[in-house]
## 1
Amino acid sequence: MALSAPATLYVGLLVAAPLVILVAYSLWTQTYVTIDRTPTLASYREAFGDPLVRHLMLRSILIAGAVTVVTVALAYPIAYFIAFRARKKTLWLLLITIPFWSSYLLRVFAWKLILGFNGVMNSALLALGIIDEPLTFLLYNEFAVVLTLAHAWAPFAILPIYVSLQKIDPSLLEASTDLGNGPVETFLRVTLPLTIPGIIAACLIIFIPTVGDYVTPSLVGGSDGKMIANLIQVQFGAANNWPLGATLSLLAMLSVGFVAIVFVIGATGLGRRIR
Amino acid sequence: MTETSIIELQGVEKRFGRFVAVSDMTLSLRAGEFFSLLGPSGCGKTTALRMIAGFQEPTAGKVVIDGQDMAGIPANKRPTNMVFQSYAIFPHLNVGDNVAYGLRHRGVPKAEIAARVDEALGMVELGGLQARRATELSGGQRQRVALARALVMRPKVLLLDEPLSALDKKLREQMQFEMRHLQQNLGITFVMVTHDQYEAMTMSDRIGVMFNGRLVQVDQPAELYARPGSREVATFIGGMNLLPAEVRADEGGTLTVETPGFGTLGIAENPKVASRAKRIVVGIRPEQLEIAAERPADYDATVRGEVSDVAFYGESVHYRVRIPGIDAPVAASVPNYFHTVDHKPGDRVWLGVQGASVIDLGAEDKK
Amino acid sequence: MTETSIIELQGVEKRFGRFVAVSDMTLSLRAGEFFSLLGPSGCGKTTALRMIAGFQEPTAGKVVIDGQDMAGIPANKRPTNMVFQSYAIFPHLNVGDNVAYGLRHRGVPKAEIAARVDEALGMVELGGLQARRATELSGGQRQRVALARALVMRPKVLLLDEPLSALDKKLREQMQFEMRHLQQNLGITFVMVTHDQYEAMTMSDRIGVMFNGRLVQVDQPAELYARPGSREVATFIGGMNLLPAEVRADEGGTLTVETPGFGTLGIAENPKVASRAKRIVVGIRPEQLEIAAERPADYDATVRGEVSDVAFYGESVHYRVRIPGIDAPVAASVPNYFHTVDHKPGDRVWLGVQGASVIDLGAEDKK
Amino acid sequence: MTRANGLLFYIILYLAFLYLPVLFLPLFSFNDGTIVAFPIKGWTLEWYRQLGGQETLLQALGNSLIVGAVTALFATSMGLFAARAYVRYRFPGKEASEGLVMLPLVIPGIIVASSMLILFISIGLKPSLTAVILGHTFLALPFSVSIMKSAFDDFDVSLEEAAFDLGSTVTETFRRVTLPIVFPGIVSSLLVTFTVSFDEFVLAFFLSGNQPTLPVYIWSQIRFPAKLPNTLALGSLLLFASVLLLVVAEMFRRRSSSSPV
Amino acid sequence: AGADLSVFDWSGYEDQGFFGAYMEKHGEAPSYTFFGSQEEAFTKLQSGFTADLAHPCSDAVRKWVAADLIQPLDPSKLTNWDALLPEIKEVDGIVIDGEVYMMPFEWGNTGLIYRTDKISDDQISLQLMADPAYQGKVAIPDAASSAYALASLATGNKDTYTDLTDEQFQAASDWLRSVHPNIRFYWADAGQLDQAMASGELELGWAWNQSELNLIWNEVPAKMMRDVDKGIATWVCGYVHLKSSTTPEEQIYDLLNALSDKESGKYIIESWGYPHANAEAFGISDQELIKTYGFDDVSSFFEGSLFFDAVQPELEAKMLKEFERIKAGF
Ligand SMILES: Nc1ncnc2c1ncn2[C@@H]1O[C@H](COP(=O)(O)OP(=O)(O)OP(=O)(O)O)[C@@H](O)[C@H]1O
Ligand SMILES: Nc1ncnc2c1ncn2[C@@H]1O[C@H](COP(=O)(O)OP(=O)(O)OP(=O)(O)O)[C@@H](O)[C@H]1O
Ligand SMILES: NCCCCNCCCN
Ligand SMILES: [Mg+2]
Ligand SMILES: [Mg+2]
C-alpha cells in the first residue's frame, strides 16, 4: 500500500544497501591506507583462521545469552506484578522507564561508580566492616558487563512480557484454579506458556543488539569482558582494516541470526509441550 | 435446609469497599436441581456464584457445600466446577488437552484420562475433535468444550456464568435444550447465572431473582410468573400493566379492589407479597387482556379505549390502548392465529379482563 | 420502478475477489417508506447498504437515487446519510459540533447552523446537550446524536446499519418506537439493516429478506409471515414446523395435499412460491396448532402424539410433540392464559390444525 | 499473603536496582572535587554554574536538539502513514513490510553504524548532522510505527466514513477527523522518537561530522577527569528534563487511549 | 568570524589560554570538535570528516600524509617557527621531503607512573609490571603503539622500536603477555587511569605526564619514573592543516601563531604541566615549577628516551593485530 511505502522503502534501503556494501567490502582488501578492490576471500580466511575471532564470537554470544537470561528472569516478576497486582499500571510503567531517560553513557558510567574500586559498593562494605580491602572482582569482567546490561535493558524485557501477560484473560487462571490447580501449577501450565511470545520478543530485542554492543564492554568489561563488537570497532578504527571489519560484521550477524532462529524454534517447541 | 441440600448460603454478604454487591443472601439448593440466578446486569449474580466457587470470600455469612463449611477453602479444593461466561478455553492447548487439564492435575492414569475425555466429549457431541486447536472452534463448540472440561471432573455442583450469552439465538435455543437434558441425565446440580428471563424459565427447576445484591424471590418458573412477589419481579419477567388499586374488602383470600378504568374486581390475595395495605398496585399481563371491536361478553370487567400503537411480532400482535383515567397506555397482546391485524391505531376498542388473572402486587408506596 | 421510487437497484452485484457478497440485487424503494434489509450475519446486508451510501462501488449493475445514476459519485456527493452501527460519534467534538459537522462543510451560516442543530437535537430529545462531550454520553444518547447528525443534513434517504444492536433490550424497544414515529413525521425514506426479525417486523413498511448475498423476498411484514416464499424465509422468521407433502389435486388456488400424521388437507396455493411440484413442503406455525388432552373438534385435521418437551416462556408455553411418521418432534405453542402448564413430558395429547393455516412452501428438493 | 509480600519485597529490590545507579549521577554532580569517588569532598554548585559558559557543550546540545527534532518529525510522519496502512488495509507484502520496519530494533548497533557509514560515504554523503538524522530516523521508525499503530487500533474506521458521509472530502476528513483524533498518538510518537535520537550514541559517533551530538560530546568528556563533574551536572539536568518530557508524553498517551471510540 | 575556524582536537584543548592572541584579533574562539585517540581521529577524517586544523602527534603524520588528509604548511607564515626548539623540528614527521606538515605544539613523556607510598624509588623498574606481586595493580594504554613502545623499552630494543625485527617483535609480544595477567584494565582515557591511581586500585601505570601532574594536584603520592636508563618515552604533538580546510589561510596562521606564541607556552607549562615547543616559553615561566617538572634540562628528554616516531606500516599492522590477541589473553 502506498502509505506504508515511504517507511518500508526507507528501512528497506537502509537495510539492503549497507548489506550489499558490507558484502562488497568483505571481499576487498586493505593495506595501510589503500583499498584493493580485487575480490578475494582473504578476509574470510583470516576471520575463520583466527581462534581469537571464534573465541570472541562465542564469548559475545555467551555474554549476550547470560544478559538475556538474567534480564528476562529479573524482569518477569515485575511484569507479572504490574499486569496482575498493580492498581495504577501506567504509573508503574512510568516508574520503570524513568531511569532510562538519562544519558545511556552516563548510566553505564554510573555502574562504574557503584562497582568501582572505591565505588559505592566497596565503600559501603568497608564502612560496615564486612571487608577490609576493596573487592576487585566487581568491575572489569563479564559480571560487570552482564549486570550493567541487565540494568540497561530492563524496560525492553519488562514491556513485551507485560504486554503478553496483560493479554491473558484472568478467567483462564481462574479456570485452572477451578480445575484443581494451585497457584504454582497454574503459573507453569497456563501463565508461562501463554507468555512465551512475549518472552521470545524480549529475548530477541535484548540478545541481538547486545552481541553488537561495544560501548558497555569497553567501559566496564576490562579485557575479560571484551566482545566481538570491540574487535569490529577496532577494525573500523585503530586497525583501519575495513574489509575485515565488514567480514566480521557479516559473520556476527549470521551467527546471531542462527542462534536466534534456533532459540525461537526451541522456545516455541518447549511451550507447545507444556500441557 | 433439608436433608438433601447440597449448597447452603447462610446470610452471605460481599462488600467491595463500601459497595455491597451481595447482601444477606440465604438459600438452600437441593441435590440434582437446576437452579438459576436471574437478575439485571450488575445485581450481584456473578459475585454470588463466585463465592460458591471460591473465587471470592464472603465478607459475612457462610457457604456450605455438601455439609462442609467452605470458609478458607480455596477454589481448587472445592467440589464445584465452573463454566465461564467467556468459556476460558486454554488457547495454547487443543480440545483434548483442555478437557484433560483437570484430570492431569489429579494424576489420573493416562489411559483413564483418554477414556474419560472421550466420554465427556461424546456427551457434548464433540467426539473426535480432540486434536482440534482451541482457536479453530466456533462459539458453540467452545461452549461445549467448556462444559466437557467441567463435567469430566465429575463435580458435585456445576456452576455456569451466563453460559449461553455469547451464542446467537438459534444456537442458544438448541444448547438450552441440550444442557437441560444433560443435567437431567447426569443428575448433577447446576447453578446457572443469567439475565435472560426466557432462558431461566425454560431451563430451571427453580429461579432465584436478584435485584441490587438482594435475593428477592425464589420460586418455580410458573409460580414466579403467576405470582411475582413484587412489582420489580413482575415487570422484570414478561410484560406487565401496572394499575393502582384501592382495597375495598379482604376476605377468605380474595380482595375486592377498585381500579381506574376497569372498576371493581375480585382478585386473589397473593401470598408472595409481604405487606398488606389499603392502597395497592395490581398487575395485568398483556396476554390476559381480551381486545375486541365489540364489548366482549363473559368478562369480569370491560373498558373502552383507543388503539395508539400496533406492533406486529409474527406469532402475536401487540397493541397499546389509551384508556381514560389510566396514565400509560395499556398493553395487550393477541396470538396471531389468522395472519391479520384486526385493529389499527385510532380504532376504538374494548378490553376485557377476568378478576382471576389480575395479580395483587402489594402496597403502593413500596418500591 | 414506479414514478415515485427514490432508490433503484438494478442487478447490483458486489464481488470481493472471487467471493460474491451481493449478487443480482434488484429493488425499488418508494419515497417515504421504512424499508428493512433482514438476514443472517454475513448475508450481505451491510455491503448492500454501503453500495447505496457510496462506500463501495458495485462490480455490476446500477444504483439510481432520485432518478440519478450514482456510478462514480462518491459518498460525500450523494443525497444519503448514514447512521453507523458503532455510531461513529467524533470523540474530539462535543455533541453540538458533532451534529454541526456536515453543515460546516457546506458553509451554512453560523446562525442557521445553530438553529438547525438545536432543531435536530430537539427531534431526538437531546435538546440542551450541545456542550456535552461525546465521551460522556450513554449508549442510547450516542445513538440519538448519530441520528441527529444524519437528520440535520436533510437527506433524501437515511441509511441505518443495525442502529439499535448496541443497546440493551429495554432501550432498544423504546428506540424502535421513537424512530418509527420520527420517520413517519419527517417523511424521509429510511433503509435499515438488521438481523433481528422482531425489529424488522415492528418497524418496517416493507422488509427485504437476504440470504447468501441474494434478496429472496420483499414484502410487508404480515405478508412475509403469512406467506413466506421459501423454507429459508419461513424458518428464519418465527417458528415453523416443516412437513413433506404430496399434492393430490390443484384447482382454483387450492391444493389438496397428503401429509404424514395430519393426513389429507386442503391448503391455499402460495403465490410467493415459484415452482410447482408434486412433492412439496408445507409449514405449520407452532401457534396455529391446537394442543389438547381430548381430540379437539372442528379442526380440519387431528393427530395423536406424545409430549417430549415442555418449555415455559411466561406468556406462552412451548411443547414438543412426537408424532408417529414425522421425524422431528412437532412444536406447538399455547398462550399461557391460565398460568398453568397443562401437559407434561410423556403425556399423550391431540394436535389439531386448520387447512387454512398450513402454508405451501413449494417443491421439496428446492433448498 | 506471604507470597504477595515476597513479590512486593522483590519489587522494591528491583526498583532500587533500577534507580540507585541513576541517582548517583546527581549526587556526584554536587561533589566538590574532580575525582569521582567516595568520600564526597564537599558540596558545590560550581559544576552547574560552569555549564552556561561551555560553548562546545551548548553547541552539542543544540545539535542534539536539532537532530532529535528533525528525526522525530521524519520518523513520525513516515510512521503515521505506515501505521495507517497497516491497521487499515490488507495488501500484498504487508506482513513483510511490517516485519521489515521493525528490523532496526534487532540489528546490532555497531553493524548498523558501520554499514551506514560505508553507505553514506559511497553515495558522497559525508558524516554530518544530516547523516545522523538519516540514521536516527531509521532507528526511531519502529518506535513511531508501533505507537501510531496503537493509536490507529483505537480508531474506528467508521469515523472517517461518517465524515465522508457528511460531505467531507478526503483531505478535509483527514484534517478535521483523523488528525485531531490521532493527535495524542502523534505527540507521543514525537516525544519518544525525539528521545531515542537524543540518547543515541553509537550511530551518532560514527556518523556525526564536526558537529557532535550531545552523547558524542559526553563520550569525549567522560575520558577527561577535569570535565567529568560538568558532565555529571549536565546528565542530571538531562535526567530531570527527560522525566518532565516523559510525564508529558504519558499524559498525551493516556488521553489518546482513553478516548472511547 | 573567529568561530568559522574549525579545529579537530583532543578534548580540553579548547582552553582559551592557548590562543590569547587569536582571541584578541578575532574576538571569538575557533569552534572545536573532539576526538579521544589518534586512531579515532584518523578514521573520522578518512570517512569524510572536515575541519581546518587537526592535532595529531608526530608519529601519525606520515600515515595522514599517505592518506592524503593534510597539506604542507608555509614556514614563512609561521612567525614563531624560528623560536621553536631545534630538537623538536628534527623529529620525524614534522618535516617530510622538505615540506613542513606539522607545527609542533606541546610535547611530553609517556612513562611509568607509580604510587610512591607503595613502591620506593630504588625498587621501581619496568620489570615490576610483570611481577606477580602486582597482580591487578597495573594499567597500560589501550593503544598498540604505546604498548609496544613500553615493551621495546622493557626488552632493550628502544632504538629499533619503529622497525623491530621478527625476534624483537616476538620478545616484545612475549613481554606484554607476561604483563597481561597483572593488568587491571587497558586504559582508553587518561581520566580512567588517574582515578584508579588515586584510589589505590592501581599502583603502576604507563601514562602521560599530564596524569602525573593531575595526581600531584590532587595530593596523591605518585610520580613518574624519569630515569632514562630505566625507560621513558617522549612524544611531540602539533597542528596540521587539513586538506578539507575551507577557511582563509590568514585566519589559520593566526591561530597557529597564537598557539606557538611564548605566552601560550607559559600558560601550558604553568597550568597544564606540559612542555611547549617554543624555546622562549621556558624562560618566562615560573622557574620554581620548571624545576619541579624537570623542564630545566630540555635536552634530557630527547637523549636516551624512546621517541615516538612513525612505526613501519607492516610492523604497525602486526602490532595492532597481536595486541588484540594479547588483550584477549591469547
Ligand atoms: N472486584 C470488584 N470490585 C468492586 N466492585 C465489584 C467487583 N466485582 C463486582 N463488583 C460490583 O459488584 C456489582 C455486582 O457485580 P456482578 O458481577 O456480581 O454483577 P452481575 O449480576 O453478574 O452483572 P452482569 O449481568 O453484568 O454480569 C457490580 O456493581 C459490580 O460493579
Ligand atoms: N471488504 C471486504 N473484503 C472481503 N470480503 C468482505 C468485505 N466486506 C464484506 N465481506 C464479506 O462479504 C460478506 C457479506 O458481508 P456484510 O458485511 O455485508 O454482511 P452482513 O450481512 O452485514 O453481516 P452482519 O450481520 O454480520 O453485519 C461477508 O461474508 C463478509 O466476510
Ligand atoms: N602514540 C603517541 C602518544 C601520544 C600521546 N599524546 C597525548 C597527548 C595528550 N594531549
Ligand atoms: Mg455477571
Ligand atoms: Mg453488517
Note: Chain D has a mean pLDDT of 85.
## 2
Amino acid sequence: MDNNLLAQIVFYSFAVLTVGSAAVVVFSKSLIRSAFALLFTFFGVAALYAFLGADFLAAAQMVIYVGGILVLLLFGVMLTHKLYDLNLRSETFQFVPALVVAAAVFAVIVTFMLRTSWHTGPPASDAPTTAAIGELLMTDYILPFEAASILLLVAMIGAAMIVRRRSE
Amino acid sequence: MNPQLLLDLQKFYPELALTAAFLCVIVADIAFPRIRKRLTFAIAALGLAVAFFLSLPLIGEPAGTIFSGSLALDEMAVFFKCFLIATSLLVLLAAPGSKELSQRHMGEFYMLLLGVTLSMLLLASSVDMLMLYLSLEMVSIGSYVMVGYLKNDRQSNEASLKYLLFGTVATGAMLYGITILYGLTGTTKIALLREALATNIATGENAAMLLIATALIVAGFGFKTAAVPFHFWCPDVYTGAPTPVTAFLSVAPKAAGFAILIRFFFTGFAESGSPGSWTAFSFIDWRLLIIVISVVTMTFGNIAALRQNNIKRLLAYSSIAHAGYILMGTVVLNSQGLQSVLIYLITYLFMNLGAFLIVIEIFNRTGSFDIDDYRGLSRRSPFLTIAMTIFMLSLMGIPPFAGFFGKLYVFGAAVNNDLAWFAVVGALNSVISVYYYARVIRAMIIEPGRETSLIPLPWTSHVMVWIMLLPTVGLMLFWNDIQQLTMSSLRLFLG
Amino acid sequence: MIGLGHFLVISAALFSLGIMCVLTRKNAVNVLMGVELILNSANINLVAFSKFSAGNMSGQIFAIFIIVIAAAEAAVALAIVLSMYRIIKSVDLDRADTLKG
Amino acid sequence: MQSIAELLGLLPGYSSIPETYRALIPVVVSCVVIFACMALAVLFAVWLERKVSAHIQDRLGPMYVGGWHGWAQTLADAVKLLLKEDIVPASADKLLFKVAPFVVFLGAFAAFVVIPFGASSFVADLNIGLLYVFAVGSLSVIGIIMAGWASNNKYSLYGGMRAAAQIISYEIPSAIAIMTVVIPVGSLSLVEIVNAQQGGIQNWFIFRYPPLVFLGFIIYFIASLAEVNRTPFDIPEAESELVAGYHTEYSGMRFAFFFLAEYANMFLVASVATALFLGGWTWFVPESVVPQFIPGPVLFFGKVLALVFVQMWLRWSLPRLRVDQLMYLSWKVLLPASLALVLGVGWVTVYW
C-alpha cells in the first residue's frame, strides 16, 4: 500500500472517534448527549467495517443502526420525558465498582486476545462483497434468512401490540 | 430451485406447518373480526397438532444435517420437536381458560406462542452458531412480548422489562463469546469446533481465550435455563407474567435451552467416539464446574422457595431448583445421564404445567396468588385439591408419581458414575423442597378458610386437569416405552 | 500495518464500555444503548476475524444477522419501555420495584 | 476521481508532491468541486422555485436585482443570510445546536459522491452506490432530530420528530421501489445502472417491463418527495402549525446550511431518479441514428432539472396531507404496491 501512513492516520482517527464517542455514551451526564454520541460510535464502526473490506456491511450498519435503531432510541428518549427538559440527567449508581469490573473485563480480554495465536490465514481480499453475500443468503444461509423474517414479523407485531393504546 | 433444498424441505414439514399456522393466525385475526377468537384458537391448535404428527415420521430418519449444516436432524432433535410442540399445545389449550389474558387480543397471543414454538424447534436442533444465536434471540424476543402481554398491568410490564434487560445483556455476552470461538476456529459449525480447537489450543493463551469464550457462552445458556448465577430475572418474571405464559416459560424454553446446551457441548467440545468424556480440553474441570452450578442452583432455588407466600413465586424458585436437578443429569455426560435429562423433562412437563393450570383455575375464582388464599380449598373444590396435591407430591419426588421416577433416574445416573455424594446432595435438596410443597398442601387441606363457596369448574378445565393428571399418575405404567423412547432419542448426530 | 490486534482492542474497549453502561445506568433507554455497544463490539470481532482469521464470509453474514436482530430487539425493547413509561411515568429502573422477593 | 487526478497531473510541479499527500489532493479537490456545483445549483433552484411559484400563481416574482427576471435575487439573499447575526438561543443545548446543521448538510452532501453526472464525471463508483446513498441519508435524519431537540422549542421538536418519522417511513417504499431497477441490472453501482440503459430512450428503465418499472419510478418519486419534506408532504415544517419546523430557531450561516441541505436533497433525489430510471447521462436516441452532441453532464443536469421542476410544480398545486394520511399513504399504499412490483419484476426477470 503506497498510502500506508495515510491509511494509518485515518484508521486511528476513526478508532479514536469510535471509542471516544462510546465513552461519551457511557459517561455523559446528559441522556440526550449519550444518544447523539452513539451516532458517532455507529459511524466509526461503519468506517472500521469499510477498513476491513466489508463494504456492504458498512452501508448496512449506517442504514439500520443510524437510520433505524438510533432513531428509535432517540424517540424512546424523547417520548419518555417531559419536553423542555434539556438537562435530562441520567443517574448512575454503583459507579466505582462497575468501573472496576469494566476495567478488569477490558484488561483480561485485551491481554489474552493479544497473546492468543489466532487461527490466521492470509487476509481476505478486498473484493466487493455484496454479490457474495447475496449468493450466500440465498444458498447456505437460506434458513437463517427466512427465520430472520419470522423474527422481524414477531417483533413488529409484538411491539405494535404493546404500545397500542388501551382503547378500541 | 436447488434440488437439495427441496429434499431438505421435506424434512422440515413440522416447522413449515407451524409457520403456515403462524401466518394464518395473523391473517385470520385481521380478516375475520367477528369470529377471530375461536378461529385463531382453532388454527393455532390445528397447526400445532399437525406439526406434532408431521414430526413423528421423522423418527428413524438417518441422522444428518439439513439446510447446509444449519440444523441437525437426529433422534434427539425429533424428541425435542415433539416435546416442545406438545408443551405449546398444552399451554394453548389452557390459555382460553385464564381470565388474566385479555380475551380481546388472543390472536396475538396465539401468534406469539406459535412464533416462539417455531423458534424453539430451530433452537433445539441448531448445529450452527449463527442459527443458534438467531433462534435463541427469536425465542427471547417472543418471550419478552409474551411476558409483557398484559400491557396495562404494572407487574407484567416490569417483569417484561427486567426479562428484556437481563436477556439482552446475557445474550450479548454470549454473542461475544461466540465471536471469540469463531476467531479461534474459523468456523461457525458446532460440529467442526472440536477438531479446530484440538489443533488450536496447544498454547496456554489459547486455552485461556477459550475459557473466556466458554464462560460467556455459558452465561447465555444459564440465562435461558435460569441456572444460578443467571437466575435473577426468573422469580420476578414468573411472578409478573400472565400465568399461562409463566407455565409455558417454566417448561418449554428451558427444555430448549437444555437441548442446545447438551448439543453444543456434546458435539462441540467432548471427544468423539467416547460419550461421557469432557476430556478434550482437560485444562478445566468441566464436571466440577457444572456440578458446582448444579448444586448451587438447586440449593438456592429450594432455600429461596421456603419463604415465599406467592404461589407463582414459589413455583418460580422451585423451577430454578428443578433446573439444578436437570443439570445434574448433564454432568454425567454419557447416555445414561442424557437419558435421565430427557426423562426428567417429560415428567416435569406434566407435573409443572398441571400445577400452573390449577393456579390459573384458582386465580380465576379468587383473584389471588397468595398461598394463604388457598386455605380451605378442600371444601370448595375437592377435585382441584386432590389434583394439586398430586402435582405437589410429584414435584417433591414422592412415589408413585412421575416426579419420583425422574429424580430416580437423575440420581441413579449420578450414583452409577461415582458421584454418589452428588446424588446425596440432590436427595437432601428434595427433602428441603418437601417443606414448601407441603405448605401448599397443608393450606389447602388442613387450614380452615373463610370462604366456603364452591368453585365451579368448566368442563374444559376438567378435561385439561385430567390431561395433566393422568400422565403424572400413570407414567410409570408405560415406563418401558419411555425408557426406550428416550434411549433411542440419544442417537446424536456427531458428524 | 494495521492488523487483527488493532480491531480486537477496539472491540474489547466497546465491550467493556457496554458492560459499564449496563451496570451503571438507571435509565432503561440508556441501558439499551449499552447493549447496542456490546452488539457492535461483537460485530467488529466477527468482521475482523472474517477478514484476518477465518478467510470466509460467514463472519460477515453473521454480522448482518446480528444487525437485523439488534433492530428487532430495539423495537420490542422500546415498545416495552414506552409502555412502562405510560404506566409509572418513569423509565428509571429503580422505580420498577413492585416485584421483590 | 480518476479523471480529477489525471487533470491535476497536468499541473506543473504536481508530481513533486510526496505520494502520501498526493493521494489526498484529488479527494479534497473533488469535494470542493462538488460543493461549488451544489451551491450553484441550489442558488439556481431557489431562483427557479420563486419564478415557478410566481408564474403558477400568475405573478412575476422578483424582477429587479440583477436585471433579467431578477436573476441575482438569490445571490443577494445568500449575502444577506451570511451577514446575519448567528443567534444561539439562551436555553438551547449549545453544542448540539451548533453541530446539527452540519450533520444534516453532511448527509446531503456526502451522497453526491456516488452520483454519476457523466460517463466519467463522478467522484467514486462504489459498488454499493445506491446503498451508500441511503446510508448517508440516514445521517440527515439524526441531524434533524438533533436540531429539533437542541433548539429547546416545542415547534422545533415536533417538526424534528415529524420529519424523522416521515423520512424513515418513506425510506422503505423508496428503497423497495429502487429494487425494480436493481433486480434487472444485478448491481447497486449507479454507473453500471446507467450503463445498462445506453442505446436510446427505449432502453431507459422507466420503459422496461411496462408498466412495472414505470410504477416503481412513480412510487420512488412520491416517496422521495416525502423524504425531502416537499409539499404535499411538508408537515414537518408546516408554517401554519409549526412556524418553520426544526429550523425555527436557526439564523444566519447555520440556517443557510439547512437551506442548502434542503435544496441539495431535492437535487439528490432527482439525480438518483435520473440515474436509475431516466438513463442518466445517456442520449435519447441510439448514437448510430443521431450522435450525442450534448455533453453527458449537461444532459444529466437537464433531466434532473426537469424532475426538480416537477417537484416545484407539485408544491404549488397540491394541498398538504394530514399526518395520518401521510402514514396511511406510506404504509398501506406505497409499501404494498412496491412489494408487489418487486415480486412482479423478479418474476419477469427470472422467467421471461
Note: Chain D has one domain: 84-351.
